[in-house]
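Late entry, written up from scratch paper. The run itself happened at the end of the previous shift, but nothing got recorded in the book at the time, so transcribing now.
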Amino acid sequence: MSRKAHRVAQNTLAKTADRPGQRRRSRAEIEFEEPSLLGILFGEFDANLVLVENRLGVFIAARGNRVQIEGPEDAVARARDVLKSMYDRLQQGQELDAGAIDSLIAMSAEPTLEGIITGEDTGAPPIMIRTRKKTIVPRSGTQIEYMRALGRSDLIFALGPAGTGKTYLAVAQAVSQLMTGSVQRLILSRPAVEAGEKIGFLPGDMKEKVDPYLRPLYDALYDCMPPEQVERHIASGVIEIAPIAFMRGRTLADAFVILDEAQNTTPAQMKMFLTRFGQNSRMVICGDPRQVDIPGGDSFSGLADAVGRLEGVEGIDVVRFGKADVVRHPIVGRIVEAYEGEDA
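Output as recorded:
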């Protein structure tokens, strides 16, 4: 038996012909080898199994360490892959909550789901990012593509709506590379532009004035590193968080550089930022082209201008996220879909 410690048996039921075009029905059975994981796998009162049933339109029956799935052939295959991936997450010591299950269900529509998270079926190394506090695995098909790009490319543009993990995964990759010594410092930046409102002059010194704009970057850092370590690295200059205006005239060598909310840069700012690229550096540019807050709107966005000029250039990757990649609360995906439909 493989290290995944589950067996799968599947047989296709007789195809019914009562109605033209009726979907072929199928039955699959999975046997799990570690009973200690089944309580978490199934959830309280089998809540996790019910979630998979409702989302995929199948019937799931659990008897001991065996689970039987029945329903339309394609839905049974997806449910089987989702349950196997849920079990694998638990074996690897990862959390399994409703958000993770929703993400696995969304990913089950991807033809490459099986083997992507663990890499065992293909012999490839697992796709994951290890930080001081957690190990992060992809939670959508596009996150798989993005995490691969983060590992291979010098410059990545990550485009898409809020909640898709653009900035979070970039910060996690930056922390991981700092841990391994691949880079000597992290530089996190974003434009100091209000989202549709004017808040006036902020009190305090320069740090206190710009911190509200940079808070999402701090949040991602604290999720990947112990707070005392973050503060120590900021004090020593190993981690620098600053508005884009502070980047002019510098060369950012031996650094992992992230620009967040890049849609709010002007073309001149974007050109200035991109040309800071130094030796042994990596740069990630994150933004949502639909959420431009600078005066003048989309036509003045440095993000759209840069992607138009640089897409296809060797060493540069462009990764586009959509509403299906939203990994926050499921309602966020529905909100994005409603607004995108209106914009279209």
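The CA atoms of residues 13 and 26 lie 5 Å apart.
(Scratch paper discarded after transcription.)
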